[in-house]
Every structure is written in structure tokens, then in C-alpha cells.
Amino acid sequence: MALKTINPTTTKSWKKLEEHFNNVKDVHMKQWFAQDAERANKMTIKWEDFYVDYSKNRITEETLNLLLELANEVDLKDAISKYFEGDIINETEGRAVLHTALRAPKTAEVLVDGENVIPEIYSVKEKIKDFTNKIVNAELKGYTGKAFTDVVNIGIGGSDLGPAMVVDSLSYYKNHLKTHFVSNVDGDHVNEVIKNLNPETTLFVIVSKTFTTQETLSNATTIRKWFLEKAPDNAVAKHFVAVSTNIEKVKAFGIDENNIFPMWNWVGGRFSLWSAVGLSISLSVGFENFDKLLQGAHKMDEHFKTEDFDKNIPVIAGLLSVWYNNFFNVETEAIIPYTQYLNQFATYLQQGIMESNGKSIDRSGEPINYQTGTIIWGEPGTNSQHAFFQLIHQGTKIIPAEFIGFAKSLHGNQDHQDKLISNFIAQTEALLNGKSKEQVIAEGAPEKLVPFKIFEGNKPTTTILINQLTPESLGKLISLYEHKIFVQGVIWNIFSYDQFGVELGKQLANAILKDIDEKEIVNKHDASTLNLLKFYKNLT
Ligand code: F6P
């Protein structure tokens, strides 16, 4: 069954939230902390190895209750069961949304068109495991009999960002294989990657759900050509594997049928790292760690599916986002991981969140008259403290920030870890409390500098403190954000699982490419585009 179509702004709770917003919008959070000694405890969720403190947000208990009322009014519960049960909730593409099935236990039953997909998922998992072990243990070798040393993932968007982010995040757990990612159609990108590679010892994993993506096919073709300059034709079967739903196109590209890892159209590209799209993850950290990542995600799935909304981490995270986006009219959210390992996390989430919820037509096909998808950005702390934190602290904008930290370091350098975590905690403290005029004067600031040294504070943050960065905890964290996206989409009454907005640019690029390739410009363009095209053609 389809998701319900309820315009959130027509609900009673929305109206109440609007009134309530006017009462609380100017209150400083410090006041609420002073009034209620239990605030931090009440607004913290402890779950497994996660400690989620959302008390430093511009909310009261009433805000929370109204947001929870909103979740009930749009029937989030019903939506969650449709999501997990494989209903066609991706209506515009006529598909179920079942990345959660990819990490479900073997005993689960998830029906798509009346058929349980779990056995098929496990048979592909078995193939990933077998292949990973044979490559890692050098049972499978390159065309000259040498063990593989390098793996190149060729893909873009969801076929790149998820695997690239996880491989980077789990680099502590990596084996001897060096993993590279080629995504951009920029030829310099692919040439930079292959220039130092030895074709005899490199495995290429072409990942494309559709196997029609210009960037991926161009890169794969360039790499195969480069490979065949050194290797014989029959070596392709040993060095190229593919992950796709489009088996025919993969075969037409020349990939051996045994080297194809299938995936399914009920897995969206940006949610696909749990499928064979994660093959480079498995190759990089071993199948067991890949499986632990999946197990962690499954734990978060269960939490999301079964926990009451007031203690449900993705639900609270999604509701807070709606609160800022639709009532404070805040446009962006920052993701600040306090670990260099999560360097690519915000970039990865940009696709997950912005490709999903960047929509302006509601589920009834009507234009929307309220804000939807938030702009996501961020960089690890402490680096970001020395880059853009000035604006968060003293700028004119409210930027809700999610601080993600890990209590234990992986290499055990306690001195650094204590410094890192003290910064992690200090920043949210500073953003909450700021620094008053009195404090600035008491510190002896020259009178004329006093206004510049005042920090207003009252800047919202949520702290997610996790015991340690492991494959399992990373799986939980990614799954948390996947469900946050879902909660937002349900409330905003949009379809989160299509991405028609990326098509127009692709179409026009094809037309422009034709105009570049041909002698004459035949397609119609606006004056600015035409000038650019002529200028480029004259240069080349
Ligand atoms: O950017 C659009 C998009 O369709 C993404 O949703 C997807 O992850 C990416 O392109 C790559 O697509 P494919 O895996 O089919 O090559």
C-alpha cells in the first residue's frame, strides 16, 4: 500500500507548533537549563553504545510533544511498517524501498511481488564472501599469476560515495589491498588513479545499478582500454567484475557472467552500500567486517521499527530537523564528526539527504508551499573549528549541528584522544552558553573590543557520542541517517526515493556534447550557453 498523503501544514499539531514557535523562538536555552536540572537527562537517549544528547536544542518538552503529535498525525508508524514490509512506497518509480532487507537476518521474510527476497540476498552475500576471501587470500590471481594488490571501484553517486566513505571510515580495519575510487568523468581523475597501477595486480570493480551512467561507462571503457594495452584479451575475465541490476548491459560490455554481482531495483543507489555495491568494502576490510557493518545497521533498523517515538533516535533526529527547517526557517544542517576517519561522512550524507528530500512536489502531485530538504555540509572537527566555526558561533545564521564523536580512539593515543574529546564537548558548550558582556569585561577586554568578543550562544547542537568506531557502530550510524531521511520525507509528504531532478542536466549535457563533437552547433541554446559553447569550441 502507498504512503498516506497528508499535508503536514494542515495538521492540528502544525498549527500548534506555529503558535508555540512564537512563544519560544527568542528564549535562550540557558534559561531552560537553569529552570530544569533534569533537562539533559530527559533529553538524552542511551541506546546500545550510543549516547545521544539533544538537550542543547531550541526545544522545550512541549515542543517535543507537539513534534511527536505531528509524527502521529501524519501516521509515521504506518509509514514505517510499509517501509519495512516492502510496500511500493517509491511510487513514482513503482518500487519498494528495501535496503533494510539487505541487513535482515537469514531467518527473516521480506516479500517483493509475493516472493521472499532474503534467500536471494544471502546467496549474493555468499558470493561476496567467497570472492572476497579468494582475492584477499590470493587464491584468485591476476593474469600473470601474481596476487592482487589494488582494487579500483569504478562508479559514481551511490555506486561510489557509500563504498568510498565506508572504506575510508574503516581504514583502521583494512587489509593489505589498496583501494581506489574513480568516479568523475574528468579524465584527469581516472588518469591520476591508473598512472601508478600495475595492471597485472589490479582488480577493477565496475559498479552501476543501471549500467547506463555516462561517467561510469566512460571510466570503465578508458580503464579497459588501458588494461588491454598491456594485457591479453582473455585477461579481462580475471580482472574485471561488475555490480549491477542490468545483467544484459554488463555482459554486452564484455564482463564474464560469473563476474557479475546482482543487485535489485528495490535498493536505491544512495542506500546500496549494504548490497554487492559494497564489494570494495568487503575486499578492503574483509567480509566479516562488512557483515558486522550490516549487523549494526540491522540493530538500528530494529530500534527505529520498535522503539517508542520519544526514545527513538532517528525519529527525534528527523523531528528536530523539521522543527528548524519549517519553523525557524533554517536552511542548512552541519555534520561535524570528531574523527578524521569520517572525513567523507558529510559528503556521503549530502547525496543521501539532498537527493532524497530535495523535492518540491508533494505525494499528491501538488506543488509544496513549505520548506523541504535541508542543505547538508560539514567537515571533521577539530579542523572545522579552524575553518568555518566562526560563522556558526558569531554569524547571523542559525546552523543546527550534529556532533558525532567516539569515546575510545583506535590507536590508543590517549593524550590526543583527550584533547579531541575536550574540543568536541567544549564546542557544544560554547555554542549553547556563549560568552556574555560581563564575562568579556571580566576577562579584561579593552572596552572598544567588548562587542566583538561577545558570543550570543543559543546555537543548537545534538551530540552523538559512540563508544568506538567499529564496523558495527558505523553501520548503526549510517542506518540512523537513512531513517532520519525517511522520517523527514514522510512528514514533508514527499517521495524521498526518486531523483528525477538529476535527469535534465544529463539530457542537456548529451545535447551539448553532440554540439561539441559536430562541426556546427545544431541544438537551440540560450545566448549565454551558446557563447560558452562557441568559446570552448574555438579553444579546442
Ligand atoms: O545521480 C543520479 C544517480 O542515479 C544516483 O541516484 C545514483 O546513485 C548514481 O546516479 C549512479 O547510478 P548508477 O549506479 O546507475 O550508475
UniProtKB/TrEMBL annotation:
GO terms for MF: isomerase activity
PROSITE patterns: P_GLUCOSE_ISOMERASE_1, P_GLUCOSE_ISOMERASE_2, P_GLUCOSE_ISOMERASE_3
A Pfam match: PGI
Organism from which the protein derives: Gaetbulibacter jejuensis
Enzyme Commission (EC) number: 5.3.1.9
Alphabetic keyword roster: Cytoplasm, Gluconeogenesis, Glycolysis, Isomerase
Catalytic reactions on record: alpha-D-glucose 6-phosphate = beta-D-fructose 6-phosphate
Protein's pathway: Carbohydrate biosynthesis; gluconeogenesis; Carbohydrate degradation; glycolysis; D-glyceraldehyde 3-phosphate and glycerone phosphate from D-glucose: step 2/4
HAMAP family named in the record: G6P_isomerase (MF_00473)
Protein's name in the database: Glucose-6-phosphate isomerase
Class of the enzyme per the UniProt entry, highest EC level: isomerase
Cellular localization per UniProt: Cytoplasm
Gene behind this protein: pgi
